[in-house]
Write the C-alpha coordinates for this entry.
Amino acid sequence: MFAVKRHLEQEALGGTGLGLAMVQRFTRDLGGQLDISNVEPRGARVSLTLPCQWV
Protein backbone atom coordinates (compact mmCIF):
# COMPACT_ATOMS: atom_id res chain seq x y z
CA MET A 1 0.00 0.00 0.00
CA PHE A 2 2.78 2.43 0.84
CA ALA A 3 6.03 2.86 -0.98
CA VAL A 4 9.03 5.10 -0.65
CA LYS A 5 8.79 7.97 -3.10
CA ARG A 6 11.37 10.63 -3.75
CA HIS A 7 10.73 13.92 -5.36
CA LEU A 8 11.92 17.49 -4.96
CA GLU A 9 9.13 18.61 -2.65
CA GLN A 10 9.86 15.84 -0.10
CA GLU A 11 13.58 16.55 -0.25
CA ALA A 12 12.93 20.27 0.34
CA LEU A 13 10.97 19.38 3.49
CA GLY A 14 13.73 17.09 4.73
CA GLY A 15 11.72 13.86 4.67
CA THR A 16 12.89 10.52 3.37
CA GLY A 17 9.45 9.10 2.58
CA LEU A 18 9.94 6.16 4.97
CA GLY A 19 7.63 7.23 7.82
CA LEU A 20 4.30 5.70 6.80
CA ALA A 21 5.92 2.58 5.37
CA MET A 22 7.64 1.95 8.73
CA VAL A 23 4.47 2.68 10.72
CA GLN A 24 2.51 0.31 8.48
CA ARG A 25 5.01 -2.50 9.07
CA PHE A 26 5.18 -2.00 12.84
CA THR A 27 1.39 -1.83 13.03
CA ARG A 28 0.98 -5.05 11.04
CA ASP A 29 3.65 -6.81 13.14
CA LEU A 30 1.76 -5.84 16.32
CA GLY A 31 -1.56 -7.10 14.95
CA GLY A 32 -3.01 -3.62 14.46
CA GLN A 33 -4.60 -1.65 11.67
CA LEU A 34 -3.54 1.55 9.90
CA ASP A 35 -6.13 3.59 7.99
CA ILE A 36 -5.37 6.65 5.89
CA SER A 37 -7.93 8.85 4.21
CA ASN A 38 -7.64 11.98 2.12
CA VAL A 39 -9.07 15.12 3.74
CA GLU A 40 -9.16 17.81 1.05
CA PRO A 41 -7.74 20.45 1.15
CA ARG A 42 -6.07 19.90 4.53
CA GLY A 43 -4.10 16.74 3.83
CA ALA A 44 -4.56 13.24 5.20
CA ARG A 45 -6.13 11.64 8.26
CA VAL A 46 -4.14 8.78 9.75
CA SER A 47 -5.74 6.38 12.22
CA LEU A 48 -3.73 3.73 14.06
CA THR A 49 -5.43 0.95 16.03
CA LEU A 50 -3.46 -1.51 18.15
CA PRO A 51 -4.79 -4.42 20.20
CA CYS A 52 -4.23 -4.35 23.95
CA GLN A 53 -4.85 -6.71 26.82
CA TRP A 54 -5.97 -5.59 30.26
CA VAL A 55 -3.95 -7.16 33.04
Q: What stands out?
A: The CA atoms of residues 2 and 21 lie 6 Å apart. The helical segments are 8-13, 19-29. The first strand starts at residue 33 and ends at 39.
